[in-house]
Amino acid sequence: MKEYSCQYAAEPCTRKVPIFAALSDDDLSRISAMIKHRKFTKGQPLVLEGALSDTLYIIQRGHVKLSKTTPEGKEQILHILTNGDFFGELSIFNSDELSNFSAYALKDTSICMLTRTDMEQLMRDNPDISLRLLKSVTKRLAHTENLAQSLATKDPEIRIACMIMELGDKYGKQRGAHIHIDLPLSREELASYVGVTRETISRKFSRFEDSGLIELIGNKQMLIIDLAGLESYMGY
C-alpha cells in the first residue's frame, strides 16, 4: 500500500464524486487537503467484513468489489465500483461502526480517504453533502434489495443477461455498433455476483455467443453484439 497525492492531478477525486458536485473550487481544494491517499495492489483488501470502520473511501482510479461471506462460507459480491464511486458512507453516520462487507481491489487501485471527523466538519459546513450522501445510501440499498430479489426469484439465464447489461452500462465503451467491455471480474467472481457456478456462467456465455448476442475475447473482454436481444430477456 503506497501513498500518493491527487491534489494537483488533472482530475482530483473530489471532482469525480457526485456528493461534492455542488461545492466551489475553494471548498474542493480544502477537502483535497484533508484527504489521505493510498494505492492498493490487485487482490489487496481495503477493508474486511467485521472490522472497525471510520472512513469514506473514494476511488480515484481502478476497480473495487464489495462482498460478504455467506453462512455457507461462499463469497457473494454485492457491488462492483469504479472511478468516482465511493463506499464506507454508513460509517460517517455511526460511531464505532463495523464494516458489513469486505472490499478488495480488482486491479491496482488509487484511493482517496476521508475520516469521519473530517466528513462531519464538511457536512456541518455544507449541509447539502448530507442529503447527497443519503441519496447515495438509498440508491445502494435499492441495488442490494434488487440483487437479493433477483438471486431468489429469477432464472439464472435472466440474471446473467442482466449482469452483462449492467457491466455494459458501467464499463462498456461504444465501438461501432457494438459495446466493448473490459471485464473487471474473473469468471469465478462473475458467477459469485449472480449466484451461480462457474460452469453455469461459461455455459450461458457460450449460449449467448452462439445466439449472436455477445462475443467473448479471451477471458477478460466481451463485446455486446445485440443489446436488444439481451434486453428481451428482461422483458424490455
TrEMBL record:
Keywords: Activator, DNA-binding, Transcription, Transcription regulation. Signal peptide: none annotated. It comes from the Bacteria. Residues 154-228 form the HTH crp-type domain. The keyword Transcription regulation applies. SMART domains: cNMP (SM00100), HTH_CRP (SM00419). InterPro entries: cNMP-bd_dom, cNMP-bd_dom_sf, Env_Response_Regulators, HTH_CRP, RmlC-like_jellyroll, Tscrpt_reg_HTH_Crp-type_CS, WH-like_DNA-bd_sf, WH_DNA-bd_sf. Pfam families: cNMP_binding, HTH_Crp_2. Residues 19-140 form the Cyclic nucleotide-binding domain. PANTHER family: CRP FAMILY TRANSCRIPTIONAL REGULATORY PROTEIN (PTHR24567), LISTERIOLYSIN REGULATORY PROTEIN (PTHR24567:SF28). This is CRP-like cAMP-activated global transcriptional regulator. The gene is crp.
